[in-house]
Design goal:
Strand content: 15-25%
Structural class: alpha/beta
Shape: globular
Number of helices: 9
Number of strands: 9
Radius of gyration: 18 Å
Length: about 240
């Protein structure tokens, strides 16, 4: 007799439920990657888009940090510090700063830090433009002040799309492409951090997403290539 359980309102049967449960747990409680002292270290900070939630299981190898690793080659150690559902703002429902993986990212002594947080901040219950900008500035400073003195790169979050006629998680795309986009630009200029505009990169490419929010293999590749281009442009500062 097959056992049926319900997870997130979806009926799951037998071993599939168990496998999904493991994947879901790992997404919400990711292991902190270990740095390699012999290589230039890149810390990718972010939410489920960085983690690779749209590419679960074996397909998670196609998340953008992994594809960036492939593009950069063995001289670099790209570390994925993404964790699902987390937001930048300290007063949000699930602040990234309160997670152990955030502490691990700060302790990894990175040479380069890539920050993409904001999609979950754009939920109506979380969104506050003034707080987002202030907390982003403070967040950037926390990494710039590390002993390793890393170069910090900011990613403006990608566009979100409708799925099945409904906006996922009530995320406000108008905030992501509006006040949030402008805030990341301002903080980047103030802190001398390169800014990668993923919103306009993705705005006409719904086909790059699994569910309207999380990139598929192609979308993650486009993000990785955009980051690589910025790294190459600023490489003189990273040697």
């Amino acid at each position: 007799m097959r056992k049926t359980v319900t997870l997130g309102g979806v009926a799951l049967v037998g071993g599939f439920a168990s496998a999904y449960g493991v994947l879901y747990y790992r997404a919400m409680n990711p292991r902190s990657p270990k740095p390699d002292g012999t290589k230039k270290r890149i810390a990718c900070i972010g939410d489920s888009i960085t983690y690779g939630y749209g590419l679960m299981g074996a397909f998670r190898r196609f998340c953008y940090p992994n594809q960036l690793q492939e593009l950069l080659g063995p001289s670099y150690r790209v570390m994925n510090f993404g964790i699902c559902d987390r937001a930048l703002q300290n007063q949000s429902d699930k602040p990234y700063r309160q997670e152990k993986i955030c502490d691990a990212s700060l302790a990894s002594e990175p040479d380069i830090v890539i920050i993409m947080l904001g999609t979950n901040d754009a939920k109506p219950a979380n969104w506050n433009a003034e707080c987002y900008e202030s907390d982003l500035r403070s967040f950037v400073t926390a990494y710039k002040d590390l002993q390793s003195r890393p170069q910090v790169i900011l990613l403006q979050p990608p566009k979100t799309f409708f799925a099945l006629g409904k906006k996922l998680d009530n995320i406000l795309d108008s905030a992501i492409g509006g006040a949030m986009h402008d805030a990341v630009e301002r903080v980047g200029k103030e802190e001398d951090c390169p800014v990668v505009d993923l919103y306009h990169l993705t705005e006409n490419h719904k086909e790059w997403f699994v569910d309207g929010i999380h990139p598929n293999k192609v979308g993650a590749r486009m993000i990785a290539e955009a980051v690589l281009q910025t790294l190459q442009e600023r490489m003189y500062q990273l040697t």
